[in-house]
């Protein structure tokens, strides 16, 4: 009996190893397939954008009074720049291409360092993320969304991404360095902003949020700490670790003809104010009941407060 059990155990061991090996092979095949698909998609995108840039230039030249010889020179100059751009994209960037200067920030699974490009001398902010920590904390998709958004959205209202690369241990994002600090520091230093200054930064914040909404992303972490200032005092949106791609075709729209009153907003969100008393139409709640009510409706109430703020800002304009 023992010999039969040992024999069955001996036969099952190779089956287990084969199943594990097959699973790993499938994972590698899926990863290789994704790499090939991403590379093909990126190449097609670059080709399409290159053709669009040439078409735009040709249309502008056709509608202008530029002589034919000058038009040919401009088209050749564009071709030269496109070739140089493609050559730069094929260049393999690594951490050794940068001189690390100092640490300017730390996060849950990485840090931000000030660095200098050894070839050009330009100053950048290097976001260094430990890959093992991202996997353990389940942040891989968040980091991928952040990288994709930065690579896709070309707006002067958000922090610019110049390079992204990785080694065996870390993922690196080489980003624009903004020496002006963040909005939280400005508010703490100034205490109160002048009305024209507040309007200016509110407008730039709205433009930054709009720029990512146009590409079907939502930020989900708007706060003064993530509003950075450049050397000229202009504001740029940063930290897209919680951003999320959305399908705008499945979102409901607001009726622009309907007046946006508190009652309409409260009714559309079904916030519970149905229990009344003799004083103000609402039943008195104990502190524990108020806490439970807030926890139940905090998302709806947060949205209501956000809409009120937007209405107030629009009235200011």
From TrEMBL:
Keyword match Kinase: yes
Residues making up the signal peptide according to the UniProt record: none
E.C. number(s) listed in UniProt: 2.7.11.1
Transmembrane segments: none
Alphabetized Pfam families for the sequence: Pkinase (PF00069)
Entry's Gene Ontology BP terms: intracellular signal transduction
The protein's name: non-specific serine/threonine protein kinase
Organism whose genome encodes this protein: Triticum turgidum subsp. durum
């Amino acid at each position: 009996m023992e010999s039969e059990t040992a024999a069955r155990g001996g036969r099952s061991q190779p089956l287990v190893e084969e199943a594990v090996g097959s699973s790993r092979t499938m994972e590698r095949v899926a990863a290789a397939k994704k790499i090939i698909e991403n590379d093909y998609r990126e190449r097609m995108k670059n080709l399409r954008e290159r053709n669009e840039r040439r078409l735009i230039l040709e249309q502008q030249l056709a509608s202008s009074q530029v002589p034919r010889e000058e038009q040919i020179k401009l088209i050749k100059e564009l071709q030269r720049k496109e070739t140089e751009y493609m050559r730069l994209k094929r260049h393999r960037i690594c951490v050794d291409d940068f001189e690390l200067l100092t640490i300017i920030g730390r996060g849950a699974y990485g840090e931000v360092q000030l660095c200098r490009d050894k070839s050009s001398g330009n100053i950048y902010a290097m976001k260094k993320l430990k890959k093992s920590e991202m996997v353990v904390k389940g942040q891989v998709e968040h980091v991928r969304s952040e990288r994709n958004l930065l690579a896709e959205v070309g707006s002067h209202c958000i922090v610019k991404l110049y390079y992204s690369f990785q080694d065996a241990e870390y993922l690196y994002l080489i980003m624009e360095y903004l020496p002006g600090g963040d909005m939280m520091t400005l508010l703490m230093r100034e205490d109160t902003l002048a009305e024209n200054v507040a309007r200016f930064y509110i407008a730039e914040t709205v433009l930054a949020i709009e720029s990512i909404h146009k590409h079907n992303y939502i930020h989900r972490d708007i706060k003064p700490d993530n509003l950075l200032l450049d050397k000229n005092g202009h504001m740029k949106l940063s930290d897209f670790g919680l951003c999320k791609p959305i399908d705008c075709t499945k979102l409901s729209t607001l009726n622009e003809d309907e007046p946006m009153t508190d009652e309409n907003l409260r009714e559309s969100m079904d916030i519970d104010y149905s229990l009344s008393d003799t004083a103000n139409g609402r039943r008195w709640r104990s502190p524990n009941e108020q806490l439970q009510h807030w926890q139940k409706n905090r998302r709806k109430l947060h949205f209501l407060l956000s809409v009120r703020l937007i209405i107030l800002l629009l009235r200011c304009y």
